[in-house]
């Protein structure tokens, strides 16, 4: 029997136009069949009464780490996979309950978690994964302390990152992640907060290495996401051909020009800095990392405003670690200081879908799209903070099933 669901008496948000339509929505076999007033549904269809509530497309978070149950990456690297998977299942269930029906994991998750979710073994958002992110020796993904002289190759694939150096080395590493089914390749093109030995303002990987990674991804019809903070690092990565910049807190006007020239996306992750300032020590962030985080949130807000005014495509991301995953929806509240409500909603729906190359399939209520829906108490166009409180999420529908 074909499964069907009809959502009655809803305010359906067309994210493309930014307008509501009153009516019903019918999903058949996991996809939206039609929408409009007074729809006729199959006799066997399950009915979900919205009672005039707002219905949005399922939300998309384009920068998560579902396996990061602690912010201490060195500790995470020595956890047994079974323990990590148990934590990931819990974290993913929480994301779904907050309205996120698809997420893009940018290091840590693998095909096992993606397959488990797709097969119904794990309750959580649909998972686009990169496997291990690529890091140079001493880079953002190299979690060895200064006194740890263990050869990097012996720690190649522990935790969320792998160390690879040289053009040949990064080609092999990229090909290996693609072999395992990666939806995209993540490269650490600059220093970061969670890493113990690099500077946040450093550039990482040579241009030849970056271009080689992009070439390997494009050969497999995939793309590259690049971790970078400063304009110098961001601009190098964009010139090398990456599709998305993760963070980008210190971009400049040249960065904006390159985003537009290359058709690239910016994925700010402001909630994580807010959480670090609030309780970084409590969720395992080492002191050296907490010092690096000072002032990054303010810079990120300025970068978001610069990108918005310049017309850059901006997707929704959070980058939360450890217990801070519960603050995922806080990103909506933080961005409201710079963006209009519909811009923020699009960043978490249609723009994120475009970044994931799934336009028309997720992040929309168009006919033929996957029936991913969020039934919401309150009007997010009038007050975006409605989305900042998960308590306002009344129902989540994923693939035509009430979750």
Automatic annotation (TrEMBL):
<dbReference type="Pfam" id="PF01979">
    <property type="entry name" value="Amidohydro_1"/>
</dbReference>
<dbReference type="InterPro" id="IPR057744">
    <property type="entry name" value="OTAase-like"/>
</dbReference>
<dbReference type="InterPro" id="IPR051781">
    <property type="entry name" value="Metallo-dep_Hydrolase"/>
</dbReference>
<dbReference type="InterPro" id="IPR032466">
    <property type="entry name" value="Metal_Hydrolase"/>
</dbReference>
<feature type="domain" description="Amidohydrolase-related">
    <location>
        <begin position="54"/>
        <end position="402"/>
    </location>
</feature>
<dbReference type="InterPro" id="IPR006680">
    <property type="entry name" value="Amidohydro-rel"/>
</dbReference>
<dbReference type="InterPro" id="IPR011059">
    <property type="entry name" value="Metal-dep_hydrolase_composite"/>
</dbReference>
<keyword id="KW-0378">Hydrolase</keyword>
<dbReference type="GO" id="GO:0016810">
    <property type="term" value="F:hydrolase activity, acting on carbon-nitrogen (but not peptide) bonds"/>
</dbReference>
<protein>
    <submittedName>
        <fullName>Amidohydrolase family protein</fullName>
    </submittedName>
</protein>
